[in-house]
Amino acid sequence: MSTCICVIVNGKPVEVVAGASVAAAVARAGSRFRRSRSGEARAALCGMGVCFECRVEIDGVPQQQACMLIARAGMQVRTDG
What we know:
Low-confidence stretches: none
Mean pLDDT: 92
Shape: globular
Number of helices: 1
CATH class: Alpha Beta
Strand content: 25-35%
Number of strands: 7
Helix content: under 10%
Number of domains: 1
CATH architecture: Roll
């Protein structure tokens, strides 16, 4: 049986399996990761830290790569979307 944790994404509580990435929590919340300069929605692309499309603010620290970080219970995630 998998243990779930709760992460807050843009003010919305989201449950993910313990050990899931922050990117998985953002995707589960249905949020966009960020917007392009022209306003288009952007999302995680490579999933391995190369493209930087999944940048979010985590616990007040901007420009964190969501695909490279494991979600923690109570983590506050803000996207640019």
